[in-house]
Design a protein that fits this description.
heterodimer; A: mainly alpha; 10 helices; B: mainly alpha; 0% strand
């Protein structure tokens, strides 16, 4: 099973990175569950703060679930490269002989599988609390799946840029939130349209376009940011 | 064609001298342009048939909004040049321009909000995509400046911030269009639409003059701050030591306290005047000003006052930065001489 690392192809290396990340997160199950619980807590806060009116909650539900997902994603974003940076793995990625941007794609996909996908799978449970049902729940799941992918990419960019900085997490939010506003706007709007009987297809296609654009362009910015931090 | 002049723009001593030579011209022409534009805008241009005299805020609001966005483009392009061709001057330009752009973004937001009060009946209208996207622009500026300041190694800070600026430049149109799309779904009660009524020349000419004046003044502010940045970055360079020898050492005390004092005094004065405007009291001079501009005097004059404060703050801040950098460089030069001797 052992292969010579120098001879390992790009796909093999990317798969190895994804497998390593998944294995690490399964061994530390807290990393996996903390964002989910945080997501649930934020979704619980709003009815408690605004009152139990069903009409109001149905009206603001799509937006709140989306904001909660964005915050839950940001919560863990700063850790994407932190450990690799501290234990030297990051330098090995840079020296691996493969394009760093491609390895970054593997890293971010693994991060999305650990955070974005679970958020998506849990979201129907929280949607019930906001009177979302039927098609709106499906739209919520699709929009979250696509949206969290873009958020993962932007979060990775913020994490890479703040590796060398003194103030990690707060600064990361300051950098990433303005950049991720289009995702929030389009994602929440898609769910709201579906909930009120509108057609959400256009918004979902915009999100898909954003995800494709992001996965092509963002690694090209994340890779140099990592090089700056390691330099 | 001989391109050496262009390549010389990448060398700090040339840029330092170039900015120094350009500064007085930019300042003089800029102040003349702003003076003519505002005078014509306030007193010569006719009142709008819909907005009466309240529209006169445009002659400070539009230049501020224009500079806010143009400056972000400048930061992004300078950062791109600095990253791709590894030009130090590019980082210096971006670092010098960002605080100026951020301050004009604040001005654009404040005057837009003041304009919104009489026109929409509210200080903030979420239905207007321009207010929202300028607010996001301010967040981008703040993130950019904080990132640069938070990295201990200045070279790393420069490059990380430059990368963020380039990403922001790519993302800005996307943010902009998503905000427009979002507000178009919300049927906002906006009086002023995107394609607005065509402007008659009597209003357009002062606006263009004011725009040109503000742009030249921005050039002046950028040139002074850029000199400060270059002094701070190149304090170990020989060309700077040679040049510092020519500069006669003046007082030597920092101007920080004076700057702070002036800005605080202006702010307190502005707050007082603002409060007097907003709450109907019969104070002799203030009520006359308030009732001018067919009743919109409070909003119009408050906008111009804020523009004045932002410009003064920028000029003092730029002078202060240059002063601090020069002193630091001079200290370094003295130490260098001692070590050499």
């Amino acid at each position: 099973m052992r292969t010579d690392p120098a001879a390992a192809g790009l796909t093999q290396s990317m798969l190895a990175i994804v497998r390593r990340e998944l294995l690490l997160s399964l061994r530390r199950i807290g990393d996996l569950t903390t964002p989910l619980v945080f997501f649930a807590i934020i979704c619980t806060l709003f009815p408690l703060a605004l009152g139990p009116s069903r009409e109001l909650l149905a009206l603001i539900g799509p937006g709140i679930v989306w904001v909660a997902a964005l915050l839950a994603q940001l919560l863990t974003a700063s850790s994407i490269f932190r450990q690799d940076f501290e234990d030297g793995s990051l330098e090995l990625y840079i020296l691996a002989g493969h394009p760093l941007a491609a390895l970054v794609v593997a890293k971010v996909l693994a991060y999305w599988l650990i955070t974005g996908l679970p958020l998506t799978l849990v979201s129907p449970l929280l949607a019930v609390g906001y009177q979302l049902s039927g098609e709106a729940v499906w739209v919520l799941m699709v929009s979250l799946a696509l949206g969290t992918l873009v958020l993962s990419l932007l979060g990775a960019l913020g994490a890479a840029l703040t590796l060398a900085s003194r103030q990690g997490n707060a600064l990361l939010s300051l950098l990433v939130v303005p950049l991720s506003l289009p995702v929030l706007i389009v994602g929440a709007r898609a769910v709201a349209l579906a909930a009120t009987g509108g057609v959400a297809a256009a918004a979902l296609k915009l999100l898909a376009a954003g995800a494709l654009l992001g996965i092509v362009l963002a690694p090209l910015a994340i890779a140099p940011a990592l090089r700056i931090a390691v330099d | 064609m001989n391109w050496t002049w262009f390549h010389k723009l990448g060398s700090p001593p040339t840029v330092f001298a170039f900015c120094g030579a350009l500064k007085p011209w930019l300042l003089t022409l800029g102040l003349i342009g702003i003076g003519i534009g505002i005078w014509q805008g306030l007193f010569v241009a006719p009142a709008d048939y819909q907005q009466s005299d309240a529209y006169r805020i445009i002659f400070v609001h539009v230049p501020a909004a224009y500079i806010a966005q143009m400056c972000y483009m400048l930061v992004g392009i300078a950062s791109f040049v600095a990253l791709v061709w590894r030009m130090k001057v590019g980082h210096a330009v971006a670092a010098a321009a960002a605080p100026i752009g951020a301050s004009f973004t604040v001005l654009a937001l404040a005057t837009g909000s003041i304009w919104g009060r009489p026109m929409w009946g509210t200080w903030w209208e979420w239905g207007d995509p321009r207010l929202t996207s300028v607010l996001i622009l301010l967040f981008l500026y703040v993130g950019y400046m904080v990132l640069r300041a938070s990295v201990n190694d200045p070279l790393k800070g420069d490059r990380a911030a430059a990368l963020l600026a380039v990403v922001g430049l790519v993302n800005l149109p996307i943010i902009r269009y998503s905000v427009v799309w979002w507000s178009s779904l919300h049927q906002g009660a906006t009086l002023i639409t995107e394609d607005g009524p065509r402007m008659p020349p009597a209003m357009l000419t002062p606006l263009l003059i004011s725009l040109a004046g503000f742009t030249l003044l921005f050039g002046y502010l950028l040139a002074s701050r850029l000199r400060g940045e270059l002094v701070a970055r190149e304090k170990k360079a020989r060309w700077l030591r040679d040049r510092l020898g020519n500069v006669t050492s003046n007082s030597g005390s920092s101007q920080t306290v004076e700057t702070l004092f002036i800005v605080v005094a202006l702010t307190i004065l502005g707050g007082y005047v603002g409060v007097a405007f907003l709450y109907p009291q019969d104070w002799p001079v203030l009520s006359a000003i308030r009732d001018s501009m067919s009743g919109y005097g409070a909003f119009v004059w408050l906008s111009y006052y804020l523009g004045f404060v932002i410009v003064v703050w920028n000029m003092l801040n730029a002078a202060n930065r240059v002063e601090q950098a020069t002193q630091s460089a001079r200290r370094y030069a003295i130490r260098h001489e001692e070590v050499m001797a």
